[in-house]
Specification:
By secondary structure, the protein is mostly helical. It is 77% helix and 0% strand. The chain has one domain. The model has no long low-confidence stretch (mean pLDDT 78).
């Protein structure tokens, strides 16, 4: 197990992270989203935050890319293309300020936006418009550089499209694959060294691939109505948890 431990880790912690990567990938595949934020919270309790966001991003890239390939035929290609275009712009903007934005404040902003999209009034822009899709990619990619797990934010932007469960999972995975790829590029550009973490990340990605396969099997057995209800509940709980983390850190 020493091969996987890198710095800051015990063999037990490495094993736990590998197992949790599989479990959270299963959750994301079966219920649309949520696993990424769960993994981030657990990683943040074990690793320094300076390491958590870039390493988490690369692990999630592997998990989402696998889900993206397995569900490719169900993707909303228009959403994928315009989201990706906006994401490139968001990543470019974030590279200038990625080391300066206060993480605690960003968590509260993200949580508020997620709750608004889930429970508030529908945005005036049509959810199928090219502008809305590009703006969603720009804003969520920019924010993802600071909060790590932007899954609830991206998921809430897709939620208003009222996709069928397979189309939702496929489109969500494609958008998150682009976003995590851009995140890896930005963090590499500002000097983060991924090399010492490669063995652990590879093991977590492999575990995530197994979790994704099992989660997609479960997805086929869940009704669309139940899927949307569970998804909305998961995102609401995670958004409240994210807001609470930001509030605690702000007042600490």
């Amino acid at each position: 197990m020493e091969f996987f431990t890198a710095d800051f880790l015990t063999p037990f912690s490495a094993m736990m992270l590998i197992a949790v990567a599989g479990l959270t990938s299963l959750i994301s595949a079966a219920f649309g989203a949520g696993g990424g934020l769960m993994l981030l919270v657990i990683m943040a309790s074990i690793l320094p935050m300076s390491v958590v966001i870039p390493v988490h991003g690369l692990v999630q890239l592997g998990s989402n890319a696998n889900r993206f390939l397995l569900t490719f035929k169900h993707i909303d290609m228009s959403m994928f293309m315009y989201f990706s275009l906006g994401g490139v712009l968001g990543a470019g903007l974030s590279s200038f300020v990625v080391l300066a934005v206060p993480l605690e404040l960003m968590k509260i902003v993200v949580a508020g936006f997620v709750l608004y999209l889930l429970w508030g009034a529908t945005p005036k822009l049509r959810e199928t418009s090219k502008l809305w899709r590009a703006v969603a990619g720009l804003v969520t990619t920019f924010i993802s550089m600071f909060v790590g797990a932007s899954g609830p934010l991206v998921g809430s932007c897709l939620y208003i499209n009222n996709y069928h469960k397979l189309k939702f999972t496929a489109t969500f995975s494609s958008c998150m694959t682009v976003q995590h790829t851009l995140k890896a590029i930005v963090y590499a550009a500002v000097g983060f060294s991924f090399w010492q973490w490669l063995p652990l990340m590879a093991a977590m990605i492999a575990s995530g691939a197994l979790g994704t396969w099992l989660g997609l099997k479960l997805l086929h057995k869940i009704s669309s109505i139940k899927f949307k209800q569970v998804f909305r509940l998961i995102l609401t709980v995670l958004a409240l948890q994210l807001a609470w983390q930001g509030i605690q850190a702000t007042w600490a």
